[in-house]
Structures
1.
Amino acid sequence: MRGKFNKSSLIGWQFVLLPSALILLFSFYPMIQSFILSFESGKGNVSHFVGLGNYTRLFSDPMFLQALFNTLLYLVIQVPIMLILGLVIAHLLNSPKLKLKGFYRTAIFLPCVTALVSYSILFKSMFAVDGIFNQMLLNLHIINEPVAWLLDPVWARVVIILAITWRWTGYNMIFYLSAMQNVDPSVYEAASIDGASKFRQFVSITIPMLKPIILFTAIISTNGTLQLFDEVVNITNGGPGNSTMTISQYIYNLSFVYTPNFGYAATVSYAIVVIVAVLAVLQLKVGGEKK
Amino acid sequence: MKKALTILLLTALMTGLLAACGSSKNEANNSTDSGNQKVVAWAWDPSFNGKALKIAEEIFKKENPGFELEVIDMAKADLEQKLNTNLAAGVTDGLPDIILVNDPNIQKYVNSYPGTFTDFTDSVDFTQFSQYKVDALTIDEKVYGIPFDIGVTGMFYRTDLLAEAGYTAEDLENITWDQYIEIGKVVKEKTGKFMSTINPNDEAWTSILLQSGGSWYITPENKGNFVNNPVMTETLRLYKAIADSGIAKPVTGWSEFVGSFNAGDVATVVSGVWQIASIMDAADQKGLWAVAPTPRLDIEGGVNASNEGGSSWFVLEKSANKDLAKEFLGATIGGSSEFYERFLTEAGGVGSYIPSFSSEAYQQTSEFFGNQAIYADFTEWSTQVPGITLGMYTQEAKDALKNELPNILNGADLTKSLASIQKLFEQQVQ
């Protein structure tokens, strides 16, 4: 019996051996290496050990704090809007009475298969001073002269939030939609008989049933937002000033735009790791199953 | 038995994988060793920089028929990223022999990766080049590359619009920026067109103003040059004055910038000589353009000439074909008038090689620019551009400035703003 167990387990190990080795080599090794790198500072190849120097620098670095503020701002505003919007759309599309379901689902999902860079450039041109958005507002007499959306710190952030919401809402919606289809219709039927309104059913049945999925989308969206890069680089390139710059863009700048300081860039990357971990734990605590 | 076989297979697979990683390196070495007449170069913009290399190759081949050049084209950002990661990892096998470097990056690369780039000090006669280009390449009295194209600036203007506003060519000769603003106000009033564009996200304008006053964002010692720098103070005062005067159309990016003059929305464009190609894209504006000298800062040392952009060629010290690459660049881009004449005629590129300036190619007139000998004008201005040291932290300094620019435009106290820019910059480069 014991021998048999060993043999089957050995076969199992053989299956995971190669992938494990590759993960160790290409994923864990760089992680450890970059952690070690985060204790070094300097320019390019000329770097030296600075201990916790980079970590103390982090807290007094106005550029990093600005990038952190921007990123958290996107997170706090954009993620809830997107998730609620995704839920509502999924709920509407789940209605048995709706015609042309397939068309709507495809149309709403489509943004998230477009290329990051091309949709960013599209948004940039839409919100240009001569862009279609200003033209529209001018024609509707809502504004008297074109607004320089991307040259105003507040509006530029609004445009970024709009862009990511446009791209990712459909993605989250698909998760909700598939989860909703797993909810037994008889539950709603029973609720209807008991006199619960549609809204009440949505709040008291759909959302609680979808809790694990909502938690999952909240964590991946948080993760995604903290790594936001393409949109900001392509739409505003961090400007005006540095008011839309994200942490990822800052890491890129530190490594490739400025005089390269790979050690400090690694430190900033580890700041993201810590923030993602803390937020994920918080979300699990708030939204997770009670044991 | 079975177990042994599986383990064997797995090991074989693993070693095969690892060997594959290793062998590609060897192949690369072999190919460069055997083709000892072949040089590889990395550059962005095939129709400009790539074209220049092709012209140089043709010229070099006349004497060296066996010579072969491979130009690998990639986007500028990709090239810089690739170079940085390779050098930081200490891997030089994947790198080319010749690489194009944007001038503000020169010191950064040489200082960040010591011993990586070849010293050209004694192999080229640098007195034949505009001094400010050579200055940019000189670090600790060694010259690390071959000067290539320049970005000497001028004020491109629409003759028809300025005539409508009541100005002649003489009125635009050697003016100050304050005069420029005044002219702009009249142009706006009489023609409804903007005088220029403005983009707070783009530091081209501040760079042009600073260099025309012989100053830069950082000192030659790589310290912030914001506080107690009269050129910087004047530059930012003018920047705000231009923004406040309403003569500049706000744009958010390069394509909008180019679009604004191609569509005829602005009366002038103050930009580098390489802008000629974009201006000529609007074929319907043929004959309506002319070029005047860049406006100047009304302070001591301010001149009517400046520079925007430009790049140089580097050779990697560890390249297998270092000597051949050096010889090739030295004989063409580093010392051939023929090269610069063809570069101008075929790609519209202006170099800083003084002997070529007297050639026929540089005296040609342009129908698009109302038969003005524009290249002769630009090259004359290029000799007046004040030499500056670009240092190694230009980008950090520009970003620190950009961070404060919205406050400056909103009327914050300039002295305080400059102090906070300086502080931010110092924190960035610690």
Note: The two ends of chain B are 62 Å apart (CA to CA).
2.
Amino acid sequence: MGIKRGGSQNKLKKILILIPVEVILIAYAIIVVYPMIWLISVSLKTSYEIFTNPWLPTLKPQWQNFIDAWQRAEIGRCFFNSVIVTSISMFFILLIGSIAAYALARFVFRGREIVHTAFISGMMFPVFLGIVPLYLLLSRLNMLDNYFGLITAYVAFSLSFTIFVLTGFFKTLPYELAEAGLIDGCSHFSVFWRIMLPLAKPGLITAGIFNFFGIWNEYPLALVIISSNELRTLPLGIANLLMVEHYETNWGVLFAGLVIVMIPTLIVYLFFQRQITEGLTAGALKG
Amino acid sequence: MRKRDQQLTIIAFLAPAVILYAIFFLFPMAQAFYIALFRWRGLSTNKEFVGLQNFRTLLLEDPIFWKALSHNLVFLGISLPVVLIVGLFVSYALSRKVWGASMYRAVYLFPNMISVVAVAVLWSFVYNMQFGLLNSFLKAIGLERYATGWLGEPSTALPAVVVVSIWYSLGFYIVLFLAGMQSIPTSFYEAAAIDGATHWQSFRHVTIPLLWEILKLGVIYLVIHTLNIFGLVYVITCGQCGPNYHTETMLTYLYRLAFTESNYGYATALGVVAFLLILGFALISLRLMKREAVEF
């Protein structure tokens, strides 16, 4: 009897604790989500309506804001630049990174530890330590203010992390398969390409997702390397729009531009949410 | 024959990565320590070896540097308690299977996935004097007298940016702590419950000690993040870093020195100092949090 009563009391106590906790969690969720909902609602208003009705959703959505942002404010061009730079960079990072990681994980050779350590220790260096020397180097090689320079920098700066992730993955794969392939007369490269790379798909996805977010959102390197309007990536375009629109006060267009920037991020996030949370913590927990 | 074949393979596989990485990453990083020893203005050969003079000027005669560094420390000083208290509270709640835990986690992490620039632009409008979310909220609840131009006021500009930085990054720490907590066996909590432990007691005596390694990591990340802050401050204050350098941080100062004043040697010296400070702070926090790891 006594035990049973204690049980229901505990249950009541549990609920009494849970309610304020849920309230706090919901309040925090609102703080996170509300600015973004507000952003969408404002992106459909005229500048006049933003001043007179900043809170409530509009009754006359201005889809024109999105068209203006895409065309007149050149967010469309920035979007195109970001797609080009991100996709080419990711292709080379994953290709170059995965063959290097495979060699480091699979073969025993002199100097392996040195090369491996050199790659991994790169994660310690902040971008800004080398930013001036990199700028001077790119300028001497005529690689400033073009896709080629920016992509090269992105690939070089992403290799540390990518090789770190992929070496870990390749180490877990069974190499008997590779041996069998070699005995059947495959070259090392076709063993890698046809047998090992498909097996390493989860690792490639993890590295790919994090490189996507890193490069799609990247700002400091793009700011330093790109200077002409035509080559701006999305973060540069949006930052520039903020500074220009401060004078032109066409807020709705700027907000529409921001929504356009976030859409691909949101889509990738929704698709890969599980891999992202796992990837964020996997390294930390194993280390 | 087979052996040579293998050697060629290794070289071919490693060469592209090693060459790109050495030229465009390692070389600039290493060169920074060398360029910092020169007075170097502009792209011309106007370059003079001055030894440690840049460091001396920076540390002894440059009030802006100290101001910027103090702002980075304000960032760290506000973010650290908030991330530890709020982050641990939320992640503990999520780990004890509250309703909707995985949905909350997904929502909280999302800001961390957006471009820092987009976050900065969005928040510069939350803080906007005329139609910003914050001022209209204050108006709506009758606190209009507190409405102000948050980013224009010297006293509020820096805290306002710190709030954005926390809004942006807190979800990452929650996911990190949560993953650590989920790897703690539930039997530990059951044992504590049988012994009559309250939530606070099981948090204090089970979660914290078993989470210590993750907490250390979180603190290191936070140190690195707050000393490296750039895009958020630069965009949110339109590159001017507010009235009279009120939001200047080490890296916004470095950027201005290098790319608007073309003061390359001096800017690089600042880069080296910032790097050494990050290393130093990381080592100090590791030292302070040193404790026997609890195995389970």
Note: Residues 1-6 of chain A have pLDDT under 50 and may be disordered.
3.
Amino acid sequence: MQRRSALKSLAVTFGGLVSLPAWASSWTPDSVGPVSLVSFDEETLLGEIVETFIPETSTPGAKSLKVHQFALRMIKDCYGESAQTTLQQGLALTETTAQQAYSKAFAACDAPQRLDVLSRMVASTDPAGKPFVDLAKRLTIQGYTNSEYYLVNVQKFTMAPGFYHGCVPVSKLAVNGTK
Amino acid sequence: MSFLNIDSAKERTFDAIVVGSGISGGWAAKELTGKGLRTLVLERGRDVKHVTDYPTTMMQPWEFQHGGQLTKEYRDANPIASRCYANREDANHFFVKDAEHPYVQEKPFDWIRGYQVGGKSLMWARGTQRWSQYDFEGPARDGFAVEWPIGYADIAPWYSYVEKFAGISGNKDGLPQLPDGEFLPPHEQSCVEKHFTEQMAKHYNGTRPIIIGRCAHLTKPQPIHLQQGRGQCQNRSLCQRGCPYGGYFSSNSSTLPWAAKTGKLTLRPDSVVHSIIFDEKKNKATGVRVIDAHTKEMTEYYAKIIFVNAACLNTNLVLLNSKSNRFPNGLGNDNGLLGKYVAFHNFRTGISAEHDGFQDTTTEGIRPNSSYIPRFRNVFKQETTGPGSRFLRGYAAGFGSSRATDVDTSGMGEDLKNSLMQPKYGNWRVSSHMMGETIPKESNFVALDSSLTDAWGIPQLKISVAYDDNDEKMIRDFHEQMSEMLTVSGFKNIQTHDNPNKAPGLDIHEMGGVRMGKDPKTSLLNKWNQFHTCKNVFVTDGACMTSTSTQNPSLTFMAITARAANHAVEELRKGNL
């Protein structure tokens, strides 16, 4: 949502010049395509990490929406080499931290254990710890809130509303309905 | 000079040539073909056909690979183009890459270009406010640049003429400093914008009106728009991709297809104009030299009249490169002023704030527009006391608002997800950006580089344009006045922002270099946009502007072009050209 806010403030800043809709950016697994940045195992691990940030409940979690593939695409194409290094080192650190804390793989940990591993990494002195968690979390939120599922079901996105009303009661709208 | 001519000279001869197919070139094409002239339109970029060449226009937001962002590879290779607000993943294909047309920045200047049929009319921001008499009278009253050879009364009927055809949405506000036009229904202001408007009326006794912006959107298409094949704006606000409905005005959706329907239009994309051909015996221009963008072969095209609408700085480039024995320093450049007195709009700064009232209201739908604050400084006279007396001219400003949604992203796991799935309304947020008038000066100029050339063998343009002290004073006044205006209206968390490193150019409102004026000694063009010394060449894009005022300039380019084209055809029929 930080990104959405940034976009919104950008849209407002430029005012009459441009009005970027809040969902000017989004993605699907199809649009992302295959990304060869990490190994199959590492990609699987990243899937478990994004799922830890946004787990499946009665609604889809980040893994089933393939947010980790979006994150890999973004790191590969839109971020620099240092982010790719952070990713590689962070994934390795995730496994070693899980082994040290619980003597098992991150994927074998339960949800509280996984959250604890990520919290330990944030607190860690390892230079790949906090930067990796921050990067992965930021991309998880960006990917999830710009996914088709989220935009259609939560934001009630309509590409061409055909109208604008400047002052409507919030009681008339679900939060974020047709914005 | 020898040429590889496939076709005969006769086949390369037209009644009129228009250089450029953007917002003013499109209007020249429409007017000239509409009056029966066989017209060649030359566009240096590729063809972009309405609808079929808008590849991203129907893409859902989630269909973009990078969530709308530009890739690092692109940003690293194109630091200039990447800085343009509209250049994102969905419209990236309409922006010229830095390496494709290099130029020399004697001072930092971000030159944003759209080389394609339609030019920047595809990606423009669509603000269309008229100038008033106070804008045209500015240079003479305040003693800068030179006097405009035309006034509001000269241009007013042509504003009406182009507004009816283009389709301009707006409210009749009755302001002398921002005359009303031929309006389609206006967009609505939000609750908070209405509140701000009311507070301003109260606190400043009507001297600082706030209005809904006037913009080139078909809020209620008229028969003339339907005849163009255009329809109702769908409030998508995805304009920079090209609009399949023709909901906003562009050359591609409006003037060019209209010109084509006359059967008089020849549109030639991939045609880089090298220079204007001047015939000393006839003492007028006879045509243009064109380099094929791909084969690099040069061909000449001939016509009785030539409209140069290549976009401000490229128009300067073409004219500076049009050297002859008669004009060794560029076409019509006897006084050495060609390329000088370039000005722009100062878009460097802005302000944002929040309002914690109106909590039970929000907006619904999408508005491709915002509110607008007409210039209130030094409008009817130069202020002699107080802050406004510290600088010449003034600034307008955009003013937008939205009801923010706040999400707590501090957590992880189910806490984070719950927060994301149930966004809460935050405060109303407003934001405004300054649009400052800059004073045209001889020291802000463009010239041909003496050694560097581009891929077509044409000298590179050297740009030497910068802010001055007047601009800095205006920025400070904008901060002070807007802070006061927001404070008295109950806004909180008021934050100004200014980036002194933001170079001129990103406003994409560059103007001048081939200015109009009354005196051939101090200007290049007369009141009909003809060169004083080469009457069959007309310049009607931003390059012709004597001063810049504060309004978005495209509507004025359209009106000036239609007016000049009408005059050109009259003069042609009288045998004067």
Note: Chain A touches chain B through 79 residues (CB under 8 Å).
